[in-house]
Records
---
Amino acid sequence: MIKKLLTVSISLVLASGAGTAYAQGKTGVGKEKAASCAGCHGEDGNSTMPGFPKLAGQHQGYLLKQLKAFKSGERNAPMMAPLAMGLDEKSMEEIAEYYSVQKISKNPAPALPVDEDDDAPEKTEEQKQTQLKNLIEQGGDLYRNGNISREVSACVACHGPYAEGNKPASYPALHSQHADYLIKTLSDFKSGQRSNNRENMMHMIATKMTDEDIKAVSYYISTLK
Ligand code: HEC
Ligand code: HEC
């Protein structure tokens, strides 16, 4: 009798803790498998290098799709291809789940790109700050409203008011992503270098954007928390 009671209470304890233990177990495996990614993407998916995207908090479905596309070559990325090649689908799922439950880090306050206005006379700190503020405002306007005359769609429609993306549709979250990465990837959509998206949606949008639009909207998005 005592033995029987003991078994019952143990299984009750197990049952109540099972959900979280299972989730932790799964992400624990994902974390281990993501060890080789940490050098570029940071241990918790918060890369500190502006050219390497942050993965923390990104939707699992989106991450998984990109990993498969790196492996198949549909998304052309020389650095990522050999890494994805070594992953089977289960590992991809586990790694994607691990990153998706991490919290994305905030970016430091942006500075103007150094290549800005090479020939112009040296600006004062105040002028630089005003220029930066205007650029970010311009980016915010494009993000929320698009550009009707140039037929650029409003980003907010798919990526959400806080650039949190759309989980069920696997539209990526963009907030707090590095501006440098956003500029690079939007330019890749524009040139067609990155083309593994349904109906080439982002290519259609990015081709209508000027380099100035791309810079402005990327700076804006990088400041969203
Ligand atoms: C040597 C540096 C490096 C390593 C190591 C690395 N990555 Fe990457 N990763 C990149 C770069 C650079 C990109 C951007 C590729 C591009 O668009 O050209 C990227 C992009 C990605 C993306 C797409 C992100 C997005 O927002 O679209 C995912 C997902 C990803 N990496 C996962 C991984 C995983 C998982 C690993 C480990 C198995 C890994 N990476 C290891 C450099 C690296
Ligand atoms: C009609 C829906 C839609 C609209 C509008 C849209 N996007 Fe996207 N965006 C997507 C989808 C879907 C993807 C994922 C593409 C893929 O699977 O590779 C994406 C991907 C991206 C990425 C790549 C994210 C990463 O981590 O690599 C960036 C950056 C981006 N969009 C920026 C923008 C900006 C800026 C605008 C507004 C000018 C915009 N998008 C408007 C649907 C949209």
Note: Residues 53, 65, 142, 152-153, 155, 157-159, 171-172, 174, 182, 185-186, 196-197, 201-202, 205, 217 surround heme C (ligand 2) (CB under 6 Å).
---
Amino acid sequence: MRKARFILVGALMLLTAGACKPLDDTMVAIFGRSMRDQRKFDPYENTVAPPTGGVAFSSGNEADALGEFNVGRPEMLAEPLFTQADMQPIGTGGPIVQSLENPFERGDSAALARGEEIYMRVCWTCHAENGVGAQAPIAANHPTVAAYNLAGPQVAGYTDQYIYGMITVGRGLMPPWAHQIRPIDRWAVVTYVRQLQTEAQGDQ
Ligand code: HEC
């Protein structure tokens, strides 16, 4: 009995270790579907943006200051909604984007700390630890995709509002983060990106 079980386990291990596909195909034949057929993100696929009018978690979580949580704050979004269409012209964005207000002074230490935390969680895979895109972890896997340089003079010339807008609505392969990073934290990331630019200048 023990031996039989041993052989069965051994056979299963061989089947699974040797090739996943035949086992998977057998499961499909028996159950009609496989765990492979599930909703998941493919590499570099954009996250699904919430439907128009949908209330994302971050929008019910407005805060006036870092570290505050105001879930369900009645006045909801304190700033105007905008879309990718409002991001023209490049560098400043349209009137709505231009009207946004950055709550942080340049180099605010609390904003830098929070911004770094989020940057290293969300942005660094594509834009690199120091903001120089060519050194980003993703660059090796996607040599054809321009690894965007956030630390260089081009993005340094953009307004804070434009960078904030970019984090909010994204563009092309740059995913929108509005539904995952709340506004106060997005401004903290902007503050941190500014610091990366200053550091990059020092290197030159
Ligand atoms: C999945 C990879 C990816 C992640 C994660 C990502 N970006 Fe990007 N980002 C891109 C790509 C690709 C572009 C170039 C977009 C284009 O022009 O098509 C870009 C462009 C930008 C630009 C320049 C926009 C312009 O108009 O020149 C800024 C600013 C930016 N990203 C900031 C950020 C910040 C801040 C984060 C973290 C919150 C972030 N990105 C996360 C891929 C990413």
Note: The two ends are 72 Å apart (CA to CA).
---
Amino acid sequence: MAAAKWISSVALTAALAIAGGKPAIADDCNVEHGAEVAKRCVACHAIDIDAISKVGPPLIGVVGRQAASYPDFKYSRALRAITTTWTAEELDQFLAAPQKYVRGTSMAFAGLRKEEERADLICFLQTLNAATTDK
Ligand code: HEC
């Protein structure tokens, strides 16, 4: 299949884009690497189609979703107070340092310091969105 080749070529593009100091853009990334990074989230977040709330809300569909809007999930007061829509850019900032971005969040995760990890992870999260609309 052409997919593997496509993935390695976009990974290269992503590396170049990051080296050039451009913001992480969804199309330029390594989805496979993003799926690896997402393993750090699954203790607390469902990433599959069943979309059940665990310690945190499901991440399927989170890109483009209004913050703190997953039905029936008990968000912290801090997260409910923000009016962000989770665009790739906002997610990038949040995931770099969750407690800094949303002071008082109940997400007990230190953050992903590497820009490349965040970019690839966000691309992976976007593929989850696509999976829901493909059905
Ligand atoms: C230790 C558990 C834990 C880990 C690990 C964790 N999260 Fe969370 N996450 C939470 C909790 C709890 C919330 C709800 C926070 C609140 O209400 O303040 C949350 C909220 C979020 C939100 C906001 C969702 C919304 O509906 O507004 C996003 C996005 C998110 N997490 C992404 C991630 C990603 C991506 C990872 C992996 C890199 C991750 N989280 C790792 C527990 C975790």
Note: Confidence is low (pLDDT under 50) at residues 7-25.
